[in-house]
Amino acid sequence: MRVSVARVRFHPALARVQHITPRARYATTAPTPAEDYDIVIVGGGPAGLALAGALASSPAVYATSRIALVEAGSLDKVREWTMGEGEFSNRVSSITNVSREFLHGFGAWDYLDQTRTMPVEEIQAWDGLSSARITFNTSDIPSSSPARSPHLRPSQIATMVENLNIQRALLRTLEDKPDVNLLDNVKVLSITRNSADETDDYPHLTLSDGRTLRARLLIGADGPSSPVRAYTQISSYGWAYPTHAVVGTLFHRPHPLGLPNATAFQRFLPTGPIAFLPLSPTAASLVWSTRPELAAAMKQLDSAALARYVNAAFRLPWLSLNYLNTVLLESYASGTPLTASQAEEEISFRQQAHSIDASSALSSLQTTIGVPAEGSDSFPPLIHSLQRGTIASFPLRLTHADSYLGSSSQGRGRTALVGDAAHTCHPLAGQGLNMGLADVCELVRCLDAGAQHGSDLGTQVVLQPYARNRYAANHSMLSVTDKLHKLYALQSWPAVWARSTGLEVVNELLALKGAIMLGGGAAREEPNAGKAAMRFAADAVEVGASTLYGAKALLSGLGSIAGTVVGKAVGSLITNAGKQ
Amino acid sequence: MLSVIPRQLGYSTRLFRHFATNAESLASPTVDPIEIEHFSKLSAQWWDEHGELKMLHRMNPPRVAWLKEKIAELRDLEGEPSSPSWKALGGLRILDIGCGGGLLSESLARLGASVTGVDAAASNIAIARIHQSHDHSLNNLVYRHAAVETLAVEGQQYDAVCAMEVLEHVDEPKNFLKSCAEVIKPGGHLFLSTISRTPFAHLLTIAIAENTLHLVSPGTHNYDKFIRPSELIKFFKDLGWLTGTYEDRPNAQEAEVRGIMYFPGNGDWQLSNRGSSWGEQCNYLFWARKPKTP
């Protein structure tokens, strides 16, 4: 999501700009009359636009409320967004079936360019050290779950969609809803209370075009550094991971047997997970979480050299990958980035050290087209290049606002936070946007009920169920992704021991499965969530029997050392799902 | 369970009687600014959802939903066109007696009704007007410092009259109900909520809420003023509302009594089912309809 609003009121540098702007100076002496809105959404990213679209589709809210959405960037650019066939934006989301149903429910899904979406039918995740692997598909989704729907292909567990494709579809949904005022290319300069009248508890937004909006309800869909959150004075809890995510669009050859590219792959490396998310028969999206210095070095590589590193990262043993990382950092430090042929030479050398044959599935090197090697379906296709201009990186953070609603007793009522403004998480479970859409879905349900009761939509009576129903669900998802990430970063001997026995790996992969399958609101109105959770437990035994000493060892392992950490996370996920 | 209006913010308290004389002129520009400040603070109290009136704020959605439901039911019964749910009260003239800070009046106005809110305490009217002035959606709402008896003398007529959490504070309930009945149009609705005179209600509202937990100031309730649903039904039978046989609509000549109970766990009020016995034990809602023909 784009961070869309300048924080003038809170940022000294921008406050200076306000002083020298004649309009702003004028505004301090003779304020323009405020325009009344019932709902003001700040932020035109996927969550903000989905909120506008879903509110417009609630007859009760749409008929009774004046709605505005304020976005600092240009929405026309999103409306007119196009890309060449076979090329893809680097910001891609894995949309769960529950999120998809939500978007379908108010017509947005039909406006997507379907040729640019890719159904995912299987996810393979494995451990970078032990190679313990877990595969999941629709058999893991209970038949009664809202994640199973008649609109979906029966084998589909998620859909890969570019964020811009979603945003453009949402804007098209809003085209025949003229009463939702989309105010773009406008920054929020400040958010204040009416200083002249303390009984007026409505937030007032001063915009960069000189207008003032007075909001019955102000919703921050304005991203991780949310200015609306700053106004609400809600503190947030969290930390930065020592990790950046490198993203880019990967190109590969079509499957030699013409099979669709419907499997997502994720390998957990000690530096962070690397994910291959299919977009077309010849393209996929990369999300590679790694240490910041490695991310910086990777961004300096040319497309062909980085492609070789990506291939190796899915295949080579960790020992050799660690060595390749050192080579990468050294070349980066010397100012002469590694070339593709140097990378290939290093990889080839390491493969020989591990006796990996150039024609085996474990080989990271391109061979001539022919019959695919045995076991090659356990790895993503070999990447030959990355799309120009798509390689980027961003830091990863975990944050969770202490509350989703501003406190009316502290004079910061009539405010709510959704999506990244309320929480950010590690992308390893692909749940960021799904959590945001689940927030939006619940908030719209509450506002619709409020409009039916003739309630003031800015009040706690209306908004409290939103916070109550989303906070715990988001919190358990954040915990699972956080604990998964941290477990891989642990270097202490008990953790390494637990990892080397494989016990921990099973726990982690199960927690991941839980996060992806039950996440993003998938457990909503899910009477059999408890059963689904039990099935995960049964899978533990299955995986355990094949990779460990048997079920008994696994069960005792669940209580051991580091195992308790993720065990608790899974436990809370299961308990939480059971409650709902 | 207990009265949701603390004494100092209530319908007819000594505090507000004290202010009542000057407050009537609040709307005029000559009013004393100190008084405006005073009422502003009280207004903040009335509308503080975490404050003393928290339970009343929580009670509003279920009672509005019930009121809408009864009106829609009767429209349906008599073959009148239905309105969309968010304008369910469109075209109706509604009187809200004992409107306090305007909690119910505002909701009814947003649902399309033309609402008159009246309260015996002028300060409540001042509070309600201040709050209304901030809300651009409330053009079809007026407040008056008046008693229902005054409106009856004026000959005002309404499609529906609400007196929520009022009856248990009134000195002459029969006269009060007669005046309510007078200002209802033939075929119009009366909505009441109050507390029944049962040992259970005594325990909850006086022994526990007032004297033990001090949720409500001691002395707020007078047990002898509590009225049982059966007494209300008898009153309206005597008035001829519940015995008349107009248009063979059995549903429209029966009163409805629904218990309403607060569940502290999720902070919600819930209505009992029709005819359920716990409904009559403490807080309850009462609906009756005035016959179309006398």
From TrEMBL, chain A:
It comes from the Eukaryota. Residues 157-256, 412-449 form the FAD-binding domain. Its cofactor is FAD. Pathway: Cofactor biosynthesis; ubiquinone biosynthesis. Its EC number is 1.14.15.45, 1.14.15.46. GO terms for cellular component: extrinsic component of mitochondrial inner membrane. It catalyses: a 2-methoxy-6-(all-trans-polyprenyl)phenol + 2 reduced [2Fe-2S]-[ferredoxin] + O2 + 2 H(+) = a 2-methoxy-6-(all-trans-polyprenyl)benzene-1,4-diol + 2 oxidized [2Fe-2S]-[ferredoxin] + H2O; a 4-hydroxy-3-(all-trans-polyprenyl)benzoate + 2 reduced [2Fe-2S]-[ferredoxin] + O2 + 2 H(+) = a 3,4-dihydroxy-5-(all-trans-polyprenyl)benzoate + 2 oxidized [2Fe-2S]-[ferredoxin] + H2O. InterPro entries: FAD-bd, FAD/NAD-bd_sf, Ubi_Hdrlase_CS, UbiH/COQ6, UbiH/COQ6_monooxygenase, UbQ_mOase_COQ6. It is found in: Mitochondrion inner membrane. It is an enzyme of class 1 (oxidoreductase). Keywords: FAD, Flavoprotein, Membrane, Mitochondrion, Mitochondrion inner membrane, Monooxygenase, Oxidoreductase, Ubiquinone, Ubiquinone biosynthesis. GO terms for molecular function: 2-methoxy-6-polyprenolphenol 4-hydroxylase activity; 4-hydroxy-3-all-trans-polyprenylbenzoate oxygenase activity; FAD binding; oxidoreductase activity, acting on paired donors, with incorporation or reduction of molecular oxygen, reduced flavin or flavoprotein as one donor, and incorporation of one atom of oxygen. Its main location: mitochondrion. Component of a multi-subunit COQ enzyme complex, composed of at least COQ3, COQ4, COQ5, COQ6, COQ7 and COQ9. FAD-dependent monooxygenase required for two non-consecutive steps during ubiquinone biosynthesis. Required for the C5-ring hydroxylation during ubiquinone biosynthesis by catalyzing the hydroxylation of 4-hydroxy-3-(all-trans-polyprenyl)benzoic acid to 3,4-dihydroxy-5-(all-trans-polyprenyl)benzoic acid. Also acts downstream of coq4, for the C1-hydroxylation during ubiquinone biosynthesis by catalyzing the hydroxylation of 2-methoxy-6-(all-trans-polyprenyl)phenol to 2-methoxy-6-(all-trans-polyprenyl)benzene-1,4-diol. This is Ubiquinone biosynthesis monooxygenase COQ6, mitochondrial. The lineage of its organism: Eukaryota, Fungi, Dikarya, Basidiomycota, Agaricomycotina. The gene is COQ6.
Automatic annotation (TrEMBL), chain B:
Mg(2+) binds at residues 165, 168-169. Pathway: Cofactor biosynthesis; ubiquinone biosynthesis. Keywords: Magnesium, Membrane, Metal-binding, Methyltransferase, Mitochondrion, Mitochondrion inner membrane, S-adenosyl-L-methionine, Transferase, Ubiquinone, Ubiquinone biosynthesis. One of its GO terms (molecular function) is polyprenyldihydroxybenzoate methyltransferase activity. It comes from Dacryopinax primogenitus (strain DJM 731). This is Ubiquinone biosynthesis O-methyltransferase, mitochondrial. It is an enzyme of class 2 (transferase). S-adenosyl-L-methionine binds at residues 63, 98, 119, 164. Its EC number is 2.1.1.64, 2.1.1.-, 2.1.1.114. The gene is COQ3.
